[in-house]
Amino acid sequence: MRRFLQLGLVGLLMALPLHAAELANLRNGFSIRHQRHDTVGDTTRLYMDAAPDSGYIDVPTAEVESFEVAPPDPPEATAQAQQPQDLNSIVSSASARNQVDADFIASVIRAESANNPHAVSPKGAQGLMQLMPQTASMLGVKNSFDPAENVDGGVRYLRDLLVLYNNDMIKALAAYNAGPQRVQQYKGLPPYHETHAYVARVIKDYNCKKLAKRKTQPQAAARHQPASKAVIAQGGPGSVAGTD
Q: Does residue 112 carry a catalytic annotation?
């Protein structure tokens, strides 16, 4: 009888999922979907995937009100996850919807996450365009690790910054990295080494993309290249919204 109960228990455990997704309900009203968590004193670590080396977010334990079993992913989301969309197509679609240069978007993604859709920063920024959970919620992004959803939200935010700063790429990038309040505080590029390095990295990559296109398609580039981008190629600010 005892052996029968043991076998029955083993069968039951095998039938259950090893890692049921959870929701961490925070005091600020947001919820973070994750696979598992560990709490050590003042810090609770939320793991984004069941794998031992998966990305994670550290949140103050005091900010977590409760945990609950997350609802299952909708069938549509599961199907999309099984058929990942090409990043170039995602960027191209976001560029067309928001009228932001696709090369500029691609350069921001490369600087933010090195094109890793599962990237998580030490501060908790997630996905290709490194959206903070609060920013993602504000933008209506439900899953920051979904490439299409992350890029759509990130590009909409980037577009708003470009409009806010009259298409000044330097200020828009600085605000994306350090926050608009810092750009306003310092009336331009904040005096932070990280922000300076970030802006320079994006501009360098963006210029390389444009120069490569000019070499491969010199005549087409000459016909379609706005004057402002020639300024960008020399390292100055210019217009990137609403261009090819």
A: yes
